[in-house]
Amino acid sequence: MKQKVLITGASGFVGFHLIEAALAKGLDVYAAIRKSSDIKHLASYNINFTYPDFTSVENLEKELREKQYDFIIHAAGSTKAKNQEEYNKVNATYTVNLAKAASNVGAGFKKMVFISSLASLGPLEQTEDLITERTTPRPVTAYGKSKLLAEEQLKEINLPLIVLRPTAVYGSRDKEIFIILKTFSKGFEPYIGSKPQQLSFVYVKDLAAASVNSLFTSDGANGSYNITDGNCYDRYEMANITKAVLNKKTFRIHLPLAVVRGLAIVLEKTYEFLDKTPMLNLEKLNELTAVNWCCDIAAAKRDLDFQPQYNLQQGLKEALDWYKQNGWF
Q1: At residue 129, does pLDDT exceed 80?
Q2: What are the tens digits of pLDDT across the range 10-66?
Q3: What is the CATH number of the domain that holds 19?
Q4: Beta-bridge partners for 300
Q5: Residue 96 and residue 34: Cα distance in Å, rounded?
C-alpha cells in the first residue's frame, strides 16, 4: 500500500511542484485546497482533493485520522496580508493547529515538513558573512515575523518535524519573480539604489525534491534548514542570464532610494482602506534593498542529503523556456 502525504497549498506555485515530486516518489497524494481554488492545471494528475479546516485542531485531527496520512508537507500560507495579525493567523496559528492535530494522532503519523522562509531569519548587514541556522533572527517584514512565530511555536509540539527555509523561489508557474523577468524581457532593468547586494535563489524543483526527500530522513534530522542552490549572486546576475537566454538588451536604471520610499508610502496610504495590499510597501522595500541574503547550506546537505541540481543559469533557462512555450511572454 502506498504511503499517504497531505500537501497543503497544493493549488499554488510551489504546491504544484510538490505534487509532481511526491508522485515521482510513489506517494499517494492528497492535495489540500480551498473550495474556490483554481485546480484546472491539476486535472490530469492522479491525486485526491481535500478541504481541511485550519481554524480547528479538532477538525484537523478528524481529517488526519480518517485519511490516515503518513506525512504532511505544509506549504500553505499568506504572502500578502493587511497587518501582522492576519499574517500571524494564517502563517503561524494555522500551521500550529495542523501540527497539534498531527501530534494528537500519535504513532500512526510519521513526519511533517513545514515550508517556512528565509524571511524568518532576515538578511545580514555585511556582505562577508553567510546566513546559517545559528544566525540570530532579525526578520524585516511582517511575513517574516509570522514565519518565525510559527517556527518558535512549533518547537513546543512533540512531533517529528523538519522546517525548511527557502530563499527566493523561482520556476515555472511562479507569478512573483516572473514580473521581474517580464520587465527584463521588455528591455527595462530597474534597481533600487546603487549599493552592492548579494542574493540567493532556489529553483522550485530543488525545493520540491528537498521537501519530499525530507519525509524519509533519519530521526536525527530534526530541526530547521536553510535552502538555496548554494551560490551567491550579485544584483545583476538574474538580468544578465535572462537577457542572454532571451537574446534581449535592456536599459539599466538605478532608482533613487528616497524616490522609491516615497512611492511606497503613497501606496501604503492609498491601500489603507482597500481589501488588497500593494505590491510595494516600506517593509517590502527593506527586503528588496537588503545587502546580503546569502546562505550556508552545509547543514541541509549533511542531514537531508540536499543536493541542488540547478544553479541560477540552469534554472532560469528552464523556467524561461516554459514561460515562452506557455505564452506568458
Answers
A1: yes
A2: 999 999 999 999 999 999 999 999 888 888 898 899 999 999 999 999 999 999 999
A3: 3.40.50.720
A4: none
A5: 19
Q: List pLDDT tens digits, range 157-178.
A: 999 999 999 999 999 999 999 9
pTM to 2 decimals? 0.94
Nearest residue to 72 via CA among 50, 42, 55, 92: 50
Which residues form the domain of 72?
A: 4-174+200-231+293-312
The full 3-state SS of 64-125, as one line of letters, equals HHHHCCCEEEECCCCCCCCCHHHHHHHHHHHHHHHHHHHHHHHHHCCEEEEECCHHHCCCEC
| φ and ψ of 174, to 5 deg | -65, 140
CB atoms within 10 A of CB 179: 10
pLDDT at 221 over 70: no
Domain for residue 135, yes or no?
yes
Q: How far apart are the first and last CA of the chain?
A: 43
DSSP secondary structure string for all residues of 230-249:
S--EETTHHHHHHHHHHT--
For residue 251, the SS3 value is strand
In a domain, residue 259? The reply is no
CB burial class (10 A; 0-12, 13-18, 19+) of residue 75?
Answer: buried
How many domains does the chain contain in total? Answer: 1
Cα–Cα dist 142/224, whole Å: 20
Q: How far apart are CA 319 and CA 329, in angstroms?
A: 12
Q: Tell me which H or E stretch contains 50.
A: strand 48-50
Task: Give the three cell numbers for residue 141.
Answer: 517584514
Burial class (CB in 10 A: 0-12, 13-18, 19+), 169: buried
